[in-house]
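Researcher: Let's try something more involved. This one mixes different molecule types, so please make sure each is placed in the same coordinate frame as the others.
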Amino acid sequence: MTDKEFAVLFDKYMSDKRDEMKARFNRVLPSGEYIFNRFEKAPYLGCGKNTSIYDTSVVLGDVEIGDNVWIGPYTLLDGFNAKLRIGNYVSIDSGVMIYTHDTTRMYVSGGMAPAEAGDVTIGNCTVLGTMSIVSCGVTIGNHCIIGAQSYVNTDIPDYSIAAGIPAKIIGKVELLDEGEVRLTYY
Amino acid sequence: MTDKEFAVLFDKYMSDKRDEMKARFNRVLPSGEYIFNRFEKAPYLGCGKNTSIYDTSVVLGDVEIGDNVWIGPYTLLDGFNAKLRIGNYVSIDSGVMIYTHDTTRMYVSGGMAPAEAGDVTIGNCTVLGTMSIVSCGVTIGNHCIIGAQSYVNTDIPDYSIAAGIPAKIIGKVELLDEGEVRLTYY
Amino acid sequence: MTDKEFAVLFDKYMSDKRDEMKARFNRVLPSGEYIFNRFEKAPYLGCGKNTSIYDTSVVLGDVEIGDNVWIGPYTLLDGFNAKLRIGNYVSIDSGVMIYTHDTTRMYVSGGMAPAEAGDVTIGNCTVLGTMSIVSCGVTIGNHCIIGAQSYVNTDIPDYSIAAGIPAKIIGKVELLDEGEVRLTYY
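Model: All components are placed in one shared frame. Result:
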C-alpha cells in the first residue's frame, strides 16, 4: 500500500468516527475520543459500573474507581506513588488533577531531596469542581462539594462545601426530602 | 497486511504530518491536531469565517460561534443542556470551560436532584482569559475582558473587566482613537 | 484494503500500544501519548538530556528547554512571538501555560490594537505548580516555587516562593545540607 492510499483510508476512518459521534450525540470531541471511547476506557481500568472516563484523562498507577463516576476531559488521576481511591457517584469535573505525590522539594534541590507521597481518598456522592486540585495525603468525605479552581491540601469532612487556594470549608450540604439539596454558606 | 507493515505506514503518516507542521509553522502540537486541523474543525461545526478551534476542544450540543473567533486547546464548550452563543472577534483562551449545565446537586444527592441548566451568551470583541470558567445562565457583554483563572457566575455588562473566583467587575475598557485601548482598574 | 479491514488493523495497533504501556508502566494515557512518546518528543524539539514532554503539550515557535526538565500534559509553551527559555531541572507541572504574547487588547478592539509580546525565561531548579500561568515579558529565577493556579505577571527573584492571582512573593526557599529543603512562609 502506498503512503497516499494509507492516508485516504485513515482520514476516512477518523472522519467516519467523527460523523457518527456528531450524528448520534451531537458532540465534536478531541480526536482521541474517537479512538478510545470513555465508556470503554472505564472498564479497561477496572472501574465500577456506569462509570465513564474521557480519553484525555491521564491515569497513573494504583487508582480504584467506583460505580456511577463521571471523569471529565483534561483530568489527571495519580496513583503512581501511593493509592488513589474514588467512591461511588462522584463527579471529577473537567480539568481536575489529583496527586498522590509531590516533587516540589526534589526539583528545587536539583534532585537532592526525595519526592513526597501520600494516599488520597474521595468519598461517595462528592463533586470535585472544574480545575480543582487535590494534593497528596488528603481525604475528602462523602457528599462534599469542592469549588471550581480550588486547591485542597487538608482533609475535608462529610457534607462540607470547601473552596479557595488553599481550600477552606465555606459551607455545608444538607439532603432534604424528595431529592432537595440545601446548600448553606457560612 | 501484517501488523508490522501497518505500524510502519501509520508511524510514517503521523511523523510526516508532524514534520510538515514544524517546517511550515514551527509548531509541535498534540497529535490530534495533525488529524483534524483547527481551521477545518471550525467550518465542520458551522462556525463563522476566519474562526479556528483546536482539536482538543470538547464541543457538546447546541453551540453557535461567529466570525474571527479563536478557540484554544483544552477548552470545553457546552451547549448540551441549553444554548451557547459566542459572537464575533472573541478569544476563548486556552483551558477555558463554558457550561450550560450544572450537575453538582445531582451528584451530592446520589442522583436524586436534577441537573440545572441555562443559556450562555458571549458578546462580540470579548476575551475569556486562560483557564477561566463561565457557569450556566450567564451573559457576558461586548468588549469585555475576563481575567485568567476567573469563575464567572453572574452577568457581565459591556466594556467590563472582571476577574476573581467568583468574578467581580474590577475595571473598564475604553476604545480610543487609532486602535488605542485604555484599561482602567477601579 | 476495505474500510473494515483498515479499522481492524488500526484498532489492534492502538490497543496493543495501550496494553504495552499498561503492562510496562501501569499507566493509561490519552491516546496521543501512544503515538508520540514523551521521551521521543523532547529530543524532536531539541531539548536537553533526560527531558520529557507529553504529547498534549502545545509548543509554539522559539522554545529552548534544558536538561532534566519534566513537562506535563495539557501544557502550553509559547515562543511564537518572542523567545521562551527554560533552564535545567525544571518541573512544568500539568496544565501550566507560559505565554510570550498577549492578544487581549487586539481582541477587545476588534483587531485595531496590536498584539503585545515579550521574552520569558525560567531559571534552573524551579517548579511551576499545576495550572499556573506565566505571562509575557516575565523572568523567573533559579530555585523558585510558583504555587499551583498562580498567575505570574512580574519577575520573580531566585529562591522565592510566589503564589496568587496575580502572584506575590509569599516565602523563600533554602537549601540545607544533605538535600534538606527549608520552605519559610512570610
